[in-house]
Design brief:
The chain is α+β, with helices and mostly antiparallel strands. It has two domains: 12-210, no CATH class; 294-448, Histidine kinase-like ATPase, C-terminal domain (Heat Shock Protein 90, 2-Layer Sandwich). Helices cover 65% and strands 10% of the residues. The protein has helices at residues 12-19, 22-52, 67-85, 89-108, 120-132, 134-155, 164-256, 259-287, 299-313, 335-352, 383-386, 406-416, 440-448, and strands at 295-297, 318-323, 331-333, 357-365, 369-376, 420-425, 431-438. Strands 2-4-5-7-6 form a five-stranded mixed beta sheet. Helix 5 packs antiparallel against helix 6. The chain is elongated, with a radius of gyration of 41 Å. 31% of the residues are buried.
Length: 449
Amino acid sequence: MRVPIQLSEESLFGFLTSTRLPVVSSISTLIRWASMGLAIGCVVFGVAMLLFVEHGFWAPGLPWSGALPALAAAGPFTLAWLDWRKNRLQRAATWLFAALFLLTILANWPRGIFSPAWYLHPVLCLVATTSLGVTSGLTMTLVAVTAMLLAALMHGETDATATVSDQWVHVTSLSAVALASALAGAIVNRLVFLALITAESQRRKNFESSRALRHREKLLRHALRVETIGDLAGMVCHQLRNTFQVLMGHVTLAGIGDDAERARRLGMIEESLVQARPLLDQLMRMAHPDEGAPQSSDLADVLRQFHQQALLVLPGSIQLTCETAASAPPVMLDPMGLMHALWNLVINAKQAITGEGAITLRCGSDEHQVWIEVSDTGCGMSTELQQRIFDPYFTTKAPGQGTGLGLTAVARFVRGSNGLTQVESAPGRGTTFRLRFPRTEARRSKSAS
């Protein structure tokens, strides 16, 4: 079952977490280990400054202003790593940006407003607001801007190379750039969310439409069986009625006979029941709504099985013969779907025959295809009828006696199996339906080329 994506209104990380995409997992792993690496690096750097550098705690002349900025940032980096391990990406990202802002602020504070590292803040403000959302990103931006203003106020006299006016112009300009970057990040954040919400809404609509379409297709496939099942049920009931009469005869004769005759009659009753059972099994298989799966099939074997089943159903006035070789080249299709198509064709052939007649089943192959033919000696069709017989709901039967979906089901099955349906007929000369399917070897060689 597909889990619906829930879009967070606070952070893009909520969306990224809910998608469960492999690329998101890779990015999360990368940032998690980066957080742990930064935490370890800050601790090592801070301890080294304390142990090996005189007055290395916090001074403007030291790398990154000494041990204090690194040790202070190590804690948030560690919390970010721990939250990332627990898949709390929003909190982890917040700790990560907080550590970066804290590191840059403490490293720049003793150096005054003209320290080059202050220029990292506009970039951090843009990325933080885009990633964390408007509230968290703007809060961190205001903290960073306040820190820059306080640094200019408290350490302005140490910048001997510039006047106080120049320093305040510089700090206000840099603060304005940081605020503008944060506002740009907020706009990007909202635009990205609108795009994600639109894309997610469209994905859900497509998913629902696809599911509804699959459901309607399944119902249609089941509906296409209805006409065939009804005609088949009529013939099965006729044969079962004949079987029932035979059984009643055996019961009557067994009642007036001796014990040996009763035993013989019971055996004959059992044999009649065994012969009638495949008729009911065939009806159950035809009425089942689920489709089978395509598989490599021997059409000659499938046709022989169908011939044996049809012999039990068709009336004695119709001669049913099967002409096929011992085996045929393999074809990729659904055998149960082919059985359904053959029943449609044979029932139509039976209805086209008035009185006595013959239906012939054939199977053959050539270099690229395997074909099955169903020929009858019925009334045949004109050219105009041949052009319309596969149209849905077109039927020549009387109203209420046919839906016009039988041959439509045959055409859909053959087309879905990459095959071709051919018809040869003429008024008074019978009809031949030929179903052609590509051989499995031919399809593989065509795909390879």
